[in-house]
Specification:
Radius of gyration: 25 Å
Helix content: 25-40%
Largest sheet: 6 strands, mixed
CATH class of the largest domain: Alpha Beta
CATH architecture of the largest domain: 3-Layer(aba) Sandwich
Low-confidence stretches: 1-20
Strand content: 15-25%
Amino acid sequence: MRLSTAVLLLCPLLWMTGAARAERPVYPFTTEARFDSATVPAYAGRHDAVYAYIDAQQDAHVAQLQRWVRQRSISAADDGIDAMVTLLADDLRALGFGEVQLVETPGHPGVLGYYDAGAPTTLVVYMMYDVQPVEPNWRIDDPFAGDLVEHELGTVLMARGAMNQKGPQRAFLNAVASMLAVEGTLPVNLYVVAEGEEELGSPNFGAVLAPWRDRLRQADGAFFPMLIQGATGEAQLNLGVKGIVYFELEARGGAHGGPSRSEIHGSFKSLVDAPALRLVQAIASLTSIDGNTVRIPGYYDAVRPPTEAEQTLVNALAVDVDDAALQRSLGVSRWVDGLTGREAIVRNLWEPTLNIDGIWSGYTGEGMKTILPHVATAKLDSRLPPGLEPDAAYAMIRAHLDAGGFEDIVLRPLSGYPAASTAADTPLVQAAIGVFNKYGAKARVAPWLAGSAPFYQFTRTLDLPFVFGGLGHGWGAHGPDEYMLLRPADGVGAAGLAEVEKSYVDLLHALAEGARPR
């Protein structure tokens, strides 16, 4: 790790001054107009026979949700995966899907299903059948028992997967089953594409789609059943997601300096380079001293500025955004730079991030152990707004490290995919908003979510408009006490299971009536 004196002197100066480094962009807004979801006509259709069937079948429908969450399917541990993928495929066959195919991948298998209703409109429904591991501090004894719990909001299904995403997905299939039982068919043809690795970053989802990719591209849109209502009933409809790169940086001793075989006594630091300090310096070079501005040349330049249509969405969001409430829910005191309102929304949605997820080296146990570790590793992620592509991000990070004299730092990509977004005026989005309006669930519509998911597979690989969301409320994804609200208490505005299922019936009909066949 021996560097020239000039590089050693120059690098810290560049990090401190930001010379030749990317600067945070400014996005002037050209309109103060606001998108108003209330102007979208409420879906006016009535399907009373199906609604009545749903009401009569609520006990059976709750049992179906319980059956799904009781089947373990922790992708990270390969716990119950085979049983869950079989359960999903068998359920599609039982519903009358004429084609159901298990797709083997280098990881967990996927499922493809097709129901041919002979309809002019076709919808692709995305599902994930895997869940996160469970934590030890749940209020119930077994998060896979599928318990019904009395909650301050009403009766909830408390279980791993209840909200994310087995609950809403099985509720969608309950709605499909109800339509078939009453009407004998569906208003749209349905594809189901399901993966078991969403919680692992969807590394093989492309392989799941591959056998039917050309067929899927002929559909009219794609949909992901989700619970997007708050307890008050307001819906947060996101029209896309940021992309992501997730990677490891590693410093290791070798001929360039530092111990190469194992840790050594800490007293040798006077003579030996330290990989852990080397890694810290490399990571520090990626951002400003406060960690809040990415200092990788070109990193901000690739981001696509807000369009006028997207500005109207942001303007509407800014009217009643409650920064303080969100901060309280996260346990933080302030946003970076004291931002609030529209500025905070734009920063969150349009700027790439750079974040350390974990960093480790050497001894971290109790007491003392004075060593000089031979290797140090960190996991980092960067969220990518539309315009900044994963390959370009990795190339810029590598070039930045090399230019700073960190050629020895290993950059190990673990995952990466681009952003995805759908315009608010597409028929699928308008149909969804119209259904929300029918049920009095005002939709706050955002251009995309600041989080990431592999939805580019729909918007880019398949070239389809994509909506993820639906009525219903849940909480606790990836954490303890995860739940889906089934029967709301008096005064709770969010939909219960029966209304959730009825809204899916309406959505399929609304899409059939309003979509423009391709």
